[in-house]
Amino acid sequence: MTTHRILIRGGDVLTMDPQLGDLPAGDVLVEDDCIAAIARDLAPGDAEVIDARGHIVMPGMVDTHRHTWQTQMRAICANWTLNDYFNGIRLALCRAYNPEDVYVGNYLGALEAVNAGVTTILDFSHCNNTPMHADAALDGLAHAGIRAVFCYGFFDSGASSFTTHDRRVADLERISATLSPRSLLTIGVALTEVGLLPWPDTVAEIEAARRVGGRIAAHTGCVWGSQVCMGVREMDAQGLLGPDQVHIHCNALGDDEWAMLARANAKVSISPETELNMGMGAPVFGKCRQFGVKPTLSCDIVSLNSGDLFTQMRLGLAYARFVDNDVINRSSAMPDQLSYSVRDALEWVTVNGAMACGLESKTGSLTPGKQADIVVLGGDSFTMRPRPDPAGSVVFQATAHDVHDVMIAGKLVKREGRLVNVDLPRVLDRAEKSASGILSRVHATAPSPLPLPATVANQFAALVRR
Ligand SMILES: [Zn+2]
After folding, report:
1. How far is the CA of 300 from the centre of ligand 1 (A)?
2. pLDDT at 340
3. How far is it between the farthest Cα atoms of the chain?
């Protein structure tokens, strides 16, 4: 087999590798699926050359929590609280999804991520009403060519074909066995919210994940005044916390719980846009810093907000700076320096994200030997030229439109601003049909518009109050 070489030439390279740093006008040589070299003036030889002069070259970004199946419900939660979301999406719409809908959501959502330079997602997949739903979710990710941790969720929306929780959890092993070690997809578990199940069932979910060597993602500490989504103390007491866990949101945790997460080297995912809009509390950048936990970022739900990590970096950085500046302002003074830099924000979506997904040996930085997950940003746009500070331009200015090329495991999935081998109008038509089908099935059994009024279905609120 001959080696396929691609030379990405002359870009401003932000490697995010602490040893390599930044390399202005640098070259990145890709051989097959790996990064072979990063240096100035590499000889192209027989390589295909991508001219990146005037562009920024950086690692593909990592989103550590996205409910990709919800993509065709775009912005339906625009004015919903978290409680409305549970009633409207998790209980009503989820029940109306068939496997084709899950496929469409995951395929379109993964393409949206790739288009915005996100090459790895942790797919928190909790619309698995039947085994076919889970198969369809995986197919959607695979067809989009994205790298993903497929976190199989065991949530029972009320439309499940599984007759017991044990049978649902057992389906994880079937799905896990379908993934080859060479696949871009790895296995994980999306825990049912702690408190919605008898505790032994939560323990069974955690143990099942560890039997298949999967990542464990959990919504943690995001429902105030409730025991739902807590459980850090219980997990700590039973030795169940670990470095293989991604705890998402964590806004309502106390300092003792933060100390437990830090001691276990558990990972944390922050969704600034969802949290700030839905009443989940303050994004936990300060707590991460206080307890030595590396923050990661996530888009969570495009059924509410944006599906790109540029927006999450901007909101997250602005919020983190605001909190520290506000303390100084309140003493009638101005800050001498800012407490977070754009470099911090870039780490949240690259090296830190890869580590949370357990993929730090494969992705998260431009490092020879790692997989070639690479983004080239730039071109003639208001946002990318001129740009005296490339890292600043990425964090504060870039949009998905500025993502020129995207490579995953050495394969170009976006080239010169267009997704490769994707008929986008056709995919969007399919998503429109799926969305209207789902909504018509929901409205056949529940009043319009969503969210459902309390008298019809406030099941989650009832659970939370329990
Ligand atoms: Zn979530």
Report:
1. 5
2. 98
3. 70
